[in-house]
Predict the structure.
Amino acid sequence: MASDKDAFDVFQEKFFSFHLDSITKEAERLLESGCLPHDFLRACQQCMEEVGKKFEAGDYYLPELVMAGEIFKQISSMIKPHLKLGDGQRNLGTIVIGTPKGDIHALGKDIFCILAEAAGFTVYNLGEDVPPESFIDKVKATGATILGMSALITTAYPYMAQVVELLKENGLREGVKVIIGGGATSKDLAEKIGADAQTWDGYEGIRIIQSFAGA
């Protein structure tokens, strides 16, 4: 086949046509031809980032944004079985993750969830604009030992801090590691709100939670 880069160029052209059938057929062809699934996932991420830029610039509207999200979900579900980040047998632990109240961005979080499941974690993705209490309720219900929060805008900061405080108030903090990520976060923010780790990169995030799990 052509190089992965050339093949992904073809895929990305089809992605921006928003024709789901042709996009899924191209995805199947790529996976069958032996492309690297991690590189394919990154190519999908680049497509979604470009859609976001075009939406902010007024070149795309809500229908394109919604369609792109649906395409990403379908293609990522096709890629996920090909990802190998763990031994595929051992359950490394349970993670509760979401985008906190005040933020509705999903892409980075959803990619991290795919990688975490591939690495052997059980993942509960609470979605976006999640109230602090919902994080706590899910940790209690699942016995999760890792809690993740992703944010791309600063309006989520006070709610992220509130989640950590609620863990303490409910006697859960000692048994739950907290990781934050997303473009609006920083190591200074992690220290300020009392999180255990921060990252901007999904693969680094996997290494961090693997260390939390003793893997």
The mean pLDDT is 90. Residues 37-57 form the longest helix (21 residues).
